[in-house]
Amino acid sequence: MQDNDESYYINPPVTHALQRFILALVKNTILYPVYSESSKIHLKAFCKAEKYDFNALEYNFKLFFELLEDYRKTLDIELYRFLKIKARYLFLDEDLFNQLPIFKPLENSECDSDSYESSCSADNEGIVGGHLIGF
After folding, report:
1. 104 pLDDT above the threshold of 70
2. Phi-psi domain of 61 (left: phi exceeds 0; alpha: psi -120 through 50; beta: other)
3. What whole-number distance in Å separates Cα of residue 120 and Cα of residue 123?
């Protein structure tokens, strides 16, 4: 997987059918937080048919839902950005991500939604979610 290649996310190496299945799986898991074995079996079969690494996809699911759990506690804009980035690893572009039942960050947040350098990030030591990317 080439993490730095933007075209990898624009034209993912998976079919539209797998993308839609992943979207439905994520939506169902958000709404009904039980990851069923039948869904896992279907996802594994999809990955096998498309010659995609199931273990990598399952790992990305795990990280996405751990990050979502943290985000739900705070509705922090920085965690929301990380969620959007992590969704790419599940082959969910911005349009598909916006279809997920996830509350948007608080509007009255002190952080500027378009700036990574804000007073909020200066108050906190380190990078929010840095443990997920090895910091």
Report:
1. yes
2. alpha
3. 5
